[in-house]
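TODO from last week: model EEP domain-containing protein.
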Amino acid sequence: MRVATWNIHRGRAAFGRFRPDRITAVVAEIAPDLMVLQEAQHHLRRQDAMLDAEAIEAATGLVPLRVDPLQQGWRGNVLLVRRDARLLGGPRGLRLGGWEPRGGIQADLDLGEGPFRLLCAHLSLGPTRRRAQAAALLAAVKPGLPTLLMGDLNEWRPGGSALAVLAPAFGHPALVPSFPAFRPLLPLDHILCHPQGLVTEVSAHATRAARRASDHLPLVARFTPSG
């Protein structure tokens, strides 16, 4: 299946005004089966939806899975899946601490290729906090169930704090520059899996529309939960 993660910078490009319609257009370009977004919700106005869910569904066939029925996302994270996805467990919010505060989403899904656990998150800027947050994600792995981990981990070093914590289970991810969108230099966004080898073809979606929509580029990959 085609999966993607994207920090949408609250619907703004690096230098620009609020244009959530551009986010919808880029998601339609990618045409994923499953996509997670970060900075897709204002942490002080959680009940105000940032994205037009009806427009996204019409353009892409994706619908949000809500942790809280009153919120479109959870601590800035939004999870979009195909309408026909089977929800096997969750979704539930993961409290990861931090100033904003940071968080993630856990859900057990089956999109027709076998069950798997999805973990998505946006980690903090400080390396000490990132290590603790990565340990919390590692603890959410369920033995025997393939796990897909996606998000803005704010980690660009191969042996950096968060990636070092995750490496025993998830290995070392492909380091694909995704930030800043207009000239990507840093691989802040990641797609990992456990067991290793279930994720292939990791790349940045570097279209003109994507560069104009956020300060990060979306990261796209192929995920096969059945191996």
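Done. Residues 8 and 135 are 25 Å apart (CA to CA).
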